[in-house]
Task: inverse folding
């Protein structure tokens, strides 16, 4: 601490100036992105208060009566609260548990293919299902998993994986499986792209060295490939966990039928039903949405904390 | 260079190789068959498709679906618009994302943590559709091509991917060496970082392109002039006009003719809308080249 | 120089004169949005609409939407940025939620300004009642399309199969079961395979909504329940009391019967997951041999395709057993099929309300009503012909690959429009309508039994406050989430209805059903009191 205040301020300004002079190019780089999110993401955020207000058209978004947690309580106390939370968590955790490792394994597998041409064919093929729209995806499921005429149903039944009377798209128990596995089929190839790119950055001298040391392929995968993609894996895992409650609305909605409603009614379909379809419930919809967001955020922070402790990787 | 990976094969390796090949063949089959099915269904009678009679080749071959799709004059303007939105949008995305990611990857950068948090926060919190719509509307961006390009030009997910690539893959020693050579951030970024990051840049280019290509909701909200509508909206209209009533409650609809071929359109739409974007992949993939680091590290 | 100035001045004067004359003749520019059926062609191709705009002296910039309106709507409304006129774009709760956004039309409708709408409301006061809100305001105009049948759903049985197997037409549930068993066991369609017949098929697929009009719950009429307007979420009235099907013992009885049929393999096991498109495909079979014995649909050729349609005949409503003395009913849908509210409304912020109203009144001219429903009456559209005697003829589709229904939905706004067809007009209907009406003749005696003051509960007429609408909507989601899975599980037999019934009823009543019934009873009482 300086005895001379004027001198101290000067010195601080000098330091700031130096830092700025050092970093100004970085600020210029940052400017467009920062401006975009401030204008288009932060400016409209005053709308969040809708979750705590009674929506009124005349008074506008900020003018409705303040009702505090009324709509949160309404949701938590509603008979649908437990069911929607349970279903959402089941689907989300299954998606992460099965869906997250799949593209990693796929990328590691493809990396083992010798012929570059075959590898190209493989990669170009597996990412195609990503482009199938949800509407068509669901009708494909209906065609392939139809109880009597579905090709996949017949195959699974003849392999003994399904019982004779099973109806994979009309059974509350199988809804989650169909949802998650079809999701893997559709997105696994696409999601593996990022890992393939990361694997491609591995220095091939490393492989050579390993080979000369007599390592076999599994050992190479374990000691070179996996460490090479670990930072990507961790980052994606953290981001995925921060998305845990955002179960895709459209696919669930289209897959819903009277039989599986007990396992397929999730938060987003519930919001759609009460918020848009059956009544105009801006405030109720906003409140549930915010609730959803908060849980996601908590998950993100927790998982990020773990990853920082364990792997020293953080998204902040 | 690729060969180095496969030298000094051991016995285990040969067994493993067979196993890997079988697994790949299985994956290929599982993926290809449904895609093949979409293709043959787009040429077959819908009643037969729905009742599981079409399995390996088209039945009651017809091109009605494609006829329906291409007789719609709007489809070409849709393609045009989508290409404009995709090319312009992706260019903006890449510039904005990569530069921002570079700044955020510099550990010495003062505002780093705060700005990072600022970005991550927007992944979770937003003002909701109504305030956003009002903002866009007051900026005069409704029914303006720019709305498909500017407003959401940073995807934080992609930003984080690029940032962590910079952090984990580009050795800090490179920067120190460059500074000694008298490099500014600008120079270092353009001459060292970008050339080293082709793989990750190509990946997020693909991500952004596909997002623009498939963007449906923004167009739905902000574009209602027919001549500005992108392909996805037009295809959706075609798709729906060929679907019969889900309940028939309004009565008197007897749409037997359309019914028989309705699903042809549904499957045809996939082919028509995705073929152009699919051919992009091999070009992108080219940049996943091995050993991008070596030259720089050694040189 | 002076000359030039003078010339310029004259030119300027002239041009202002010209433009002002042109302005006087130029139609008023309006903006409108229409939510149309996806099949409906572009509005710019509809000649009759151009005529209507010309008569009203307006030039409308149309925004045509055929999908995803629900998702755009609330954003657009909340921003206050809406066009002058909105066709088929609103629901009741919008007027309260967006209070001040829509024009109250009640004070604007009178004999001089809006003669056609005035005439419509004079001829059909019930349509006006339908459109009027609790507080007397009227935000959106209704429709009346006159010709649609009393019953939306026909139950079809394959007459040829009955003949092939030497069976009589069933008259009650027990006989129906025997017929279905014969369909199951024998080669009813005569193709040599006794196992490819589906005895009964219905549309059990509901998404997350209530069962629709092609659900086997149509059998509820056998137990005496008077259902109305496509089931309307299960609400019905009996002796002036509003009840819910879901907690009624007769519903339990019907479900148990369906469970019995299901356990005997008489119902298509895929009915729960087949969507409408697949449901239709199944009944059309391979076009040569029929696949389905008994099913529900709108019209035979639509349901079974042209070649198979002649095998089917409408099945008269059944009793539950030969000894059951209960009064058999059929679902009554006349009001739901012919009337609707919320056809068109006007922005309160419009700067050209007068012109907009003029256009609306033009549309409510009954001659335009016909054209809105069936297409233009002119040489371009070629949908309707006006005969020398003043009557009208609906013309057959001019396009070879369209049937009557497709043609109608392509050429015009069809049932979604703001329609008024006066009862005094003479119209020769197309064969599709004639057939549809003929296939429903067997229901006439049953419809006649309805006592308008005791057992006709028409949800559409019920006036709920906005608070009630909101609560009712939230409750409905909860109710459906319980009712639908149970209904299916009970029919399939994975759950036991007898042991679960009481707890189920208690749960439903306590989680919103009772609340919904109470507000409906209140509204129903008010409605009944206006009838006297």
Result:
């Amino acid at each position: 601490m300086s005895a001379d205040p004027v001198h101290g301020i000067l010195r601080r300004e000098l330091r700031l100036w130096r830092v700025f002079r050092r970093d100004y190019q970085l600020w210029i780089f940052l400017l467009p992105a920062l401006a975009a999110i401030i204008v288009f993401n932060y400016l409209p955020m005053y709308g969040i208060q809708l979750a705590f207000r009674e929506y009124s058209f005349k008074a506008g978004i900020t003018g409705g009566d303040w009702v505090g947690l009324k709509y949160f309580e309404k949701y938590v106390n509603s008979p649908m609260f437990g069911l929607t939370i349970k279903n959402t968590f089941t689907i989300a955790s299954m998606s992460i548990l099965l869906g997250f490792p799949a593209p990693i394994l796929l990328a590691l597998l493809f990396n083992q293919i010798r012929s570059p041409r075959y590898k190209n064919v493989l990669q170009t093929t597996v990412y195609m299902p990503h482009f199938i729209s949800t509407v068509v995806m669901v009708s494909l499921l209906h065609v392939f998993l139809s109880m009597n005429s579905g090709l996949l149903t017949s195959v699974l039944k003849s392999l003994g994986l399904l019982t004779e009377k099973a109806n994979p798209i009309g059974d509350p128990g199988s809804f989650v499986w169909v949802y998650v596995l079809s999701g893997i089929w559709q997105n696994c190839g696409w999601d593996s792209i990022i890992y393939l790119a990361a694997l491609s950055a591995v220095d091939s001298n490393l492989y050579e060295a390993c080979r000369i040391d007599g390592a076999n392929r599994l050992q190479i995968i374990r000691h070179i490939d996996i460490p090479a993609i670990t930072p990507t894996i961790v980052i994606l895992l953290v981001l995925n966990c921060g998305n845990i409650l955002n179960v895709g609305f459209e696919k669930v909605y289209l897959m819903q039928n009277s039989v599986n409603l007990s396992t397929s009614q999730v938060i987003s379909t519930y919001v759609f039903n009460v918020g848009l379809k059956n009544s105009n419930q801006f405030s109720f919809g906003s409140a549930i949405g915010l609730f959803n967001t908060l849980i996601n955020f908590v998950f993100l922070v927790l998982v990020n904390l773990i990853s920082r402790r364990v792997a020293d990787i953080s998204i902040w | 260079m690729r060969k180095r990976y496969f030298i000094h094969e051991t016995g285990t390796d040969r067994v493993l190789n067979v196993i890997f090949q079988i697994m790949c063949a299985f994956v290929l089959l599982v993926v290809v068959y449904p895609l093949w099915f979409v293709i043959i269904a787009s040429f077959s009678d819908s009643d037969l498709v729905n009742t599981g009679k079409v399995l390996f080749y088209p039945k009651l071959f017809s091109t009605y679906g494609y006829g329906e799709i291409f007789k719609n004059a709007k489809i070409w303007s849709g393609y045009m618009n989508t290409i404009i939105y995709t090319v312009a949008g992706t260019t903006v995305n890449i510039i904005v994302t990569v530069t921002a990611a570079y700044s955020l990857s510099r550990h010495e950068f003062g505002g780093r943590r705060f700005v990072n948090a600022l970005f991550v926060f927007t992944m979770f919190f937003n003002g909701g559709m109504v305030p956003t719509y009002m903002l866009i509307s007051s900026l005069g961006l409704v029914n303006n091509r720019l709305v498909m390009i500017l407003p959401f030009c940073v995807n934080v997910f992609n930003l984080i991917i690029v940032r962590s690539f910079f952090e984990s893959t580009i050795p800090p020693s490179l920067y120190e060496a460059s500074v000694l050579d008298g490099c500014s951030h600008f120079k270092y970024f353009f001459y060292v970082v970008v050339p080293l990051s082709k793989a990750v840049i190509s990946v997020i280019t693909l991500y952004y392109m596909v997002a623009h290509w498939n963007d449906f909701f923004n167009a739905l909200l902000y574009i209602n002039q027919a001549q500005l509508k992108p392909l996805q909206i037009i295809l959706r209209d075609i798709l729906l006009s060929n679907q019969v009533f889900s309940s028939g409650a309004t009565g008197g609809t007897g749409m037997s003719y359309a019914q028989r071929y309705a699903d042809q359109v549904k499957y045809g739409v996939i082919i028509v809308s995705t073929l152009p974007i699919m051919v992009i992949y091999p070009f992108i993939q080219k940049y996943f080249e091995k050993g991008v680091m070596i030259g720089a590290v050694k040189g | 120089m002076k000359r030039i100035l003078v010339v310029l001045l004259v030119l300027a004067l002239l041009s202002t004169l010209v433009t002002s004359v042109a302005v006087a003749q130029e139609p008023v520019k309006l903006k409108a949005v229409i939510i149309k059926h996806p099949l409906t062609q572009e509005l710019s191709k509809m000649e009759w609409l151009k005529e209507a705009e010309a008569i009203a002296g307006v030039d409308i910039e149309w925004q045509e939407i055929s999908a995803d309106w629900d998702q755009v709507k609330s954003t657009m409304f909340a921003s206050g940025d809406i066009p002058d006129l909105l066709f088929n774009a609103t629901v009741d709760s919008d007027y309260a939620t967006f209070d001040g956004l829509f024009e109250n039309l009640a004070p604007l409708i009178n004999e001089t300004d809006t003669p056609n709408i005035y005439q419509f409301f004079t001829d059909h006061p019930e349509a006006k009642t339908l459109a009027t809100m609790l507080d007397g305001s009227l935000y959106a105009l209704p429709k009346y399309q006159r010709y649609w049948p009393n019953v939306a759903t026909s139950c079809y049985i394959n007459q040829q199969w009955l003949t092939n197997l030497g069976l009589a037409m069933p008259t009650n549930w027990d006989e129906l079961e025997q017929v279905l068993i014969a369909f199951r066991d024998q080669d009813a369609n005569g193709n040599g395979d006794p196992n490819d017949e589906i005895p009964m098929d219905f549309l059990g697929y509901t998404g997350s909504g209530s069962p629709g009009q092609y659900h086997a719950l149509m059998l509820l009429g056998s137990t005496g329940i008077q259902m109305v307007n496509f089931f309307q979420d299960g609400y019905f009235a009996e002796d002036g009391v509003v009840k819910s099907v879901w907690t009624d013992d007769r519903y339990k009885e019907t479900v148990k019967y369906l469970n019995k049929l299901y356990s005997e393999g008489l119902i298509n096991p895929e009915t729960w997951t087949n969507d409408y498109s697949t449901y239709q495909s199944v009944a059309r079979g391979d076009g040569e041999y029929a696949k389905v014995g008994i099913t529900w649909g709108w019209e035979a050729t639509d349901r079974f395709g042209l070649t198979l349609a002649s095998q089917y005949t409408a099945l008269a409503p059944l009793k539950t057993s030969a000894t059951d003395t209960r009064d058999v009913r059929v679902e009554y849908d006349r009001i739901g099929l012919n009337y609707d509210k919320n056809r068109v409304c006007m922005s309160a912020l419009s700067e050209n309300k007068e012109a907009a109203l003029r256009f609306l009144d033009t549309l409510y001219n009954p001659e335009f009503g016909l054209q809105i429903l069936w297409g233009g009456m002119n040489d371009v559209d070629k949908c309707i012909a006006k005969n020398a005697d003043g009557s009208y003829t609906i013309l057959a589709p001019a396009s070879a690959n369209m049937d009557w229904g497709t043609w109608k939905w392509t050429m015009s706004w069809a049932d979604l429009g703001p329609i008024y067809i006066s009862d005094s007009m003479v119209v020769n209907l197309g064969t599709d309508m004639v057939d549809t009406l003929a296939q429903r003749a067997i229901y006439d005696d049953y419809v006649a039994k309805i006592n308008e003051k005791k057992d006709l509960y028409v949800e559409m007429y019920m006036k709920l406050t906005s608070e009630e609408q909101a609560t009712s909507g939230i409750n409905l989601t909860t109710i459906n989430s319980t009712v639908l899975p149970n209904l299916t599980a009970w029919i399939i037999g994975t759950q036991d209805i007898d042991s679960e019934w009481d707890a189920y009823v208690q749960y439903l009543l306590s989680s919103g059903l009772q609340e919904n019934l109470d507000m409906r009873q209140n509204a129903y009482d008010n409605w009944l009191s206006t009838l006297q």
Notes: Chain C has 19 helices and 14 strands. The first strand of chain C starts at residue 28 and ends at 35.
